[in-house]
Amino acid sequence: MSKKPKEALEELGKGLVKDVLSNKQPKMIVPIRALSNVTFNKKTEMLQLGGKSAERNFFNVAHAKKFLQTLEVAAASKNLLEDGKHASLRDVFYMVKRTIPNTRTNVVDEQAESDDAIEDLELLTEQSREQLNINANKMGSVAGHVVIEDKGDEINWSKMGSGGWSIPSNVEEITFKRVRAKYVIYMEKAAVWERLHEDKFWDKQNCIIMSSQGQTTRGIRRLLQRLSIEHKLPIYVLADFDPWGFYIYSVLKFGSINLAHMAESMTLGTARFLGITADDIENYGLKKHLIAFKDVDVKRLEQLQNYEWFADNKQWQRQFKLMKEMKAKAEIQALSSRGISFITEKYLPEKIQKGEFLE
To answer: What integer best gives the mean pLDDT of the chain?
Structure first.
């Protein structure tokens, strides 16, 4: 990404103007964001976007609306960059939502359309949406003995009260002033993070605790990667024993189809799955807290079993097999049946000390 965001947008616009002045049909060459154009690189162990692309022509009735939507979000981004302002995904939706003159057709009807156009714009400009001054909602918290500088403010993650520091969508401009930690634990559930935070797990165990609410945001994934690469910290993933918890780990470690074009800045090759596992259910007497599978769980599990990056991994295939035999799943909070602080006083310290994790 050697170009600056504004320059990349201007280059896109100039290319279209050149087509018009040459009496050619304005067109965009957009890389295809679909499973058919995503491959797993065994060497780097991450998903990556292939070389397939699609031509989007302005005078093609099937392409015209998407063409216009992409130009509209590009214009909105350029205005934001020139004004030095940032907007949320929802803001951008309303910035481009209007009826095309002399028609009954809207530029966008749903936010999914503007979100999709923004992702196309990322590919066309080779700039992330954050670099284009478009941010997602904040959905994560972090605590630990870390001091950062953000927009000129010095922030100490160990002194942010009960809520911790709220992780922004764009973490590229953050400067780490001091990091004192042996590892990072990321958990999908905010409620589990709150238990670790109230028990001061990060202080007692000299680590960093981070959470989101379900699937990780791009800001969280990038922050985790920066801590892993820049400060050589192991990343442990704490998720439910279910196909969806396993999928969250998969996305963190290997990447996702939707963000295959940003794999290098998002994936965590050193991530380790700490729990919950089938072995934990046996070792900690959690069988009576299992939740029966639904059809959708079975389908997702079968998909995971067939993922190329899991196919030859004996440890993971064993977990899939045991889960399938149980026909059930378990939540992290099931550990609370052993005591409200069992997870911080016994479960996590013992598993980390013994190296009981999956990779």
So the answer is: 93
